[in-house]
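Explain this one:

_____
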Amino acid sequence: MVNFFIVKITQVVNFFNITTGKLIQYQVVKKFIDIHSYSTKREHVEKLYQTILDSTYHVAFEPEKYKHVAITFHSSKGLEFDQVVIFAEDYRLSDMSSICNHYVAVTRAKHKLIIVCINNFNTGIFLKKNAEILSESNLCLTDVALLPD
């Protein structure tokens, strides 16, 4: 579904590159939203329109062109990458929101997930909570990860 959406947005972006009339372009965005049965506010249509016009956002609509991408886990929802690098200190795993955010981040990796552990307080909390969560399934970190010496 997400790939389909990216393809459709890419088609709209390409149309914008060859169309000069702003009113026509806005109507295309509005029609795109209507065709896909999205119910939205006018201000959201206008924000989507501005995003499509702003070339700095085009990278989000052309992920296959870029070898390395740095994005937040919020932006990564629905996407997959060969390799994902996250920082343990960003996920304390102390509440459901943090656990869900961590889940989103680590499940983006198709082949390789690298968790960078810096020796600090938040990383310590991450490792402790991770161990607690894994122990509920009778696992430990070395059962599911390759750890450096």
Remarks:
- The two ends are 41 Å apart (CA to CA).
- The chain is about 50% helix and 10% strand.
